[in-house]
Design goal:
Length: about 140
């Protein structure tokens, strides 16, 4: 049953489903990829804004980094299932390092901190372990 639901979700063409018509129809996987890249751009912009907005609940900087990279890891795993987890981890860790290097630009008025990159890396590793465990332990569809 889960396989049939996943197949139906994959067959949904976002613009057609929501009335936007063809030929710009997007598959579910393409939507996941769009969500991943939007989240990556959002994370980058928020990280380099000179005065980012205050997040509700005022979580610490490290918590914000970990949440952002946990979300990117889950979205990346779903959007690019053929990508080896080690490559996804490497790409996201490099992305975190790039953010920290860009924050060194004095005009941005941001502080670069290697501990932010460590928080990013920790979130990526933990979430990749969770995703891989979920993929291995989830019930398999009997109708595929």
């Amino acid at each position: 049953m889960a396989g049939r639901i996943a197949a139906r979700l994959n067959d949904l063409s976002f613009p057609a489903f929501w009335g936007f018509g063809y030929p710009a129809a997007m598959t579910f996987r393409q939507l996941l990829r769009l969500a991943f890249w939007c989240a990556a751009v959002f994370a980058f912009v928020m990280a380099v804004l000179p005065h980012p907005p205050v997040v509700p609940g005022d979580p610490s900087d490290k918590v914000q980094h970990m949440i952002a990279f946990a979300v990117l890891t889950v979205l990346g795993s779903a959007a690019y299932p053929g990508l080896r987890p080690v490559m996804l981890a490497l790409c996201l860790c490099v992305f975190g390092a790039v953010i920290e290097v860009v924050q060194l630009i004095p005009a941005l008025g941001r502080d670069s901190d290697v501990r932010d990159w460590i928080a990013d890396t920790l979130a990526v590793v933990v979430m990749l372990v969770v995703v891989q465990l979920w993929l291995r332990l989830r019930p398999r569809s009997s109708d595929s």
